[in-house]
Specification:
Elements: H1 2-16, E1 28-39, E2 45-56, E3 62-67, E4 74-81, E5 86-91, E6 96-101, E7 112-121, E8 124-132, E9 139-146, E10 149-159, E11 165-175, E12 191-193
Parallel strand pairs: 6-12
Antiparallel strand pairs: 1-2, 1-11, 2-3, 3-4, 4-5, 5-6, 7-8, 8-9, 9-10, 10-11
Length: about 200
Amino acid sequence: MRKAVSLLIIGSLTCAMAAYSQERWIPYTAKFTETIQNVNVKGERKIIQHQGITVQSSNGTRMEESFLPNSTKPEKGTLNLPGENLSYSIDFRAQRAIGRTVNLGRIKHLPRTDPIGHEVIGGVAATGYRTLDPVTKKAVGEIWFADRSSDIIVRMKTTLDNGGSAVHELSDVAIGQEPDESLLRIPSGFAVSKP
């Protein structure tokens, strides 16, 4: 159950992080840490943490790979291909990728407040906003965009329904250089299921 909840949240954050707002994407590479704090029915808190890398090209192709603690090999990944409206969930251990059709178009306006502050996150200047539930208009988290490009989310905090939280934060952000093409495709030999 813990792993299923974690993967669900990773997928949700990955989709949320595909919120693009510019005509041309800014390429970047970065490391990320994702910390999920779950609260069970007894009120006990459990912390799950993943680390990994994320890369994006100037055409919007984006790959995120997460690693198990103390491992150098990726466990899971997500490859977003906005030009084809496809997203692949990649299982590196099972050597398979499952595609699904999704709208990876640019979201013009995320429901958010006026800026709540400015910080340097992952080595880049960023501006933060509270995120709002579109129905209730209540604050449900925070989203921090790199000042240089509003399609790079350097930190996202979300309050979970169970009272826990999820934080996805970039570090060692390098903006402006195209990432290695080998990082932006499904590894050869993997079984691929297209939608």
